[in-house]
Amino acid sequence: MPAPAWDRVTPAEVERALAEYDRLGPKAFFAEHGFAPTTTYELVWQERTYPPKAVLGTAYEFATGQRLAPTDFEGGRSGAVKVLGVLGFTVRPISKGNQHV
């Protein structure tokens, strides 16, 4: 699969994915969208934390209609963290003991 077209994702799709995560809860969100919990980074939005790779992958699906598998793109600094930063979102390393379920 070619590299995802991240330029098609806007902050609005990311916010829609965040709302979907809030609506479904972590377990159902991961089951619905095919991602797993994060262990390295967390997206911080409105004083809550989210799994950046799962949120970005879901935002991409909302923007393009194409579902990405977790193996289709990187989640770290050169992947989801970078893309979300460019879109204006805050992503930080997870401190020990504060990992997402």
From TrEMBL:
InterPro entries reported in the protein's UniProt record: ScoMcrA_N (IPR058807)
ScoMcrA-like N-terminal head domain: residues covered: 8-92
Pfam families, per database record: ScoMcrA_N (PF26345)
Protein name: ScoMcrA-like N-terminal head domain-containing protein
